[in-house]
Design goal:
single chain; alpha/beta; 60s Ribosomal Protein L30, Chain: A; Alpha/beta knot; 7-stranded parallel β-sheet; 5-stranded mixed β-sheet; 30% helix
Length: 323
């Protein structure tokens, strides 16, 4: 069934939303209603990787979820917010409406954005999309560098979210995350990444050793360990325009020796004497810019970025929409 705008109204028009007949809107009076279970106490339930569902908050992330490969479970709106939304919502998806004040009580924190959505996790934790993205990015005709960001144990959701947002902005091909990293589909990661988790191919695996070896053996990636050690090569000496797996350490202890041993080279960022390290999200941004900048398109005269298409993301989009 084609997607139809569920309802929209400009600020000067007092009319009710124009709702497609196939859209199921359900007014709910009690936050104890079991249908609202996935949205309950989101702050308390931020560790979601064991759940088959995840939740996004705010109209921008809801819109990005609607455009993503993930299958929707339901949507939730405050009644006042519902009057002014302009989102293309597929038919047959339950849309729950509650009083605006009840949303804060339901989710467990101050919430002023009026819109949430719940979706099912993709099968295999993104393995298939990850493989499709790498195969496309490494095809001989692309002429682009392929960069995979590897996070064995980035525990902090805000750091992982920042890395995801930066990876998407600079055109990284995919992210590979170890089981000790934060959940890429947790509420805080999704919020900080501004939904990059929904578009950038991510594979969260419990066998990172095998995945790192596969990058070398299947696609000829050079595995680059980011460390502050004096014996590592300085970043400006690292060749760009090639296939790089950038392996980042965790907050505090940095990169575990076993991941360092699994890499082909080590790199460090030149810093002022007396500074021993950078936050992992900051360091990741600097490293990614160096590795990807040569293939970022310049801005147009209006100041809008005109980034060249990323074949890895295009492959994921084609797989998502069945084109």
């Amino acid at each position: 069934m084609p997607e139809t705008p569920a309802g929209c109204r400009d600020g000067s028009n007092p009319a009710e939303p124009v709702v497609d007949d196939s859209l199921t809107t359900i007014a709910i009076d009690s936050i104890d209603d079991p249908r609202l279970g996935p949205y309950r106490h989101l702050k308390r339930n931020n560790d979601t990787h064991r759940s088959r569902l995840f939740v996004v908050e705010g109209d921008k992330l809801v819109e990005r979820l609607l455009a993503s490969r993930f299958r929707l479970h339901s949507l939730l709106f405050g009644r006042r917010y519902w009057q002014r939304i302009s989102l293309a919502i597929p038919g047959q998806i339950p849309v729950y409406l509650v009083d605006d004040k009840q949303i804060e009580e339901l989710v467990g924190f101050n919430f002023h954005r009026g819109a949430l959505a719940c979706a099912f996790r993709a099968e295999l934790d993104g393995r298939w999309q990850y493989l499709q993205a790498l195969d496309a990015a490494c095809a001989p005709a692309t002429g682009r560098p392929a960069v995979v960001v590897v996070c064995p144990a980035v525990h902090d959701p805000e750091n992982l979210g920042s890395l995801l947002r930066t990876s998407a902005a600079f055109g990284a091909t995919a992210m590979l995350a170890g089981e000790q990293s934060a959940d890429p589909l947790s509420r805080r990661v999704l919020r900080v990444s501004m939904g990059a988790s929904l578009s950038l191919p991510i594979w969260r695996t419990d066998n990172l050793e095998h995945a790192l070896a596969e990058l070398r053996e299947r696609w000829s990636f050079e595995r680059l360990a980011a460390v502050p050690d004096s014996g590592a090569e300085f970043l400006p000496a690292i060749e760009t325009g090639v296939r790089i797996a950038l392996v980042l350490g965790s907050e505090g202890p940095g990169l575990d020796p076993r991941w360092l041993a699994a890499c082909d080279r080590a790199v460090r960022i030149p810093m002022q004497a007396g500074t021993d390290s950078l936050n992992v999200a900051v360091a990741g941004g600097i490293l990614l810019y160096h590795l990807c900048a040569s293939h970022l398109a310049p801005q147009d005269p209006l100041g809008k970025p005109t980034v060249e298409p990323n074949p890895g993301l295009e492959a994921a989009s084609i797989a998502r929409h069945g084109l």
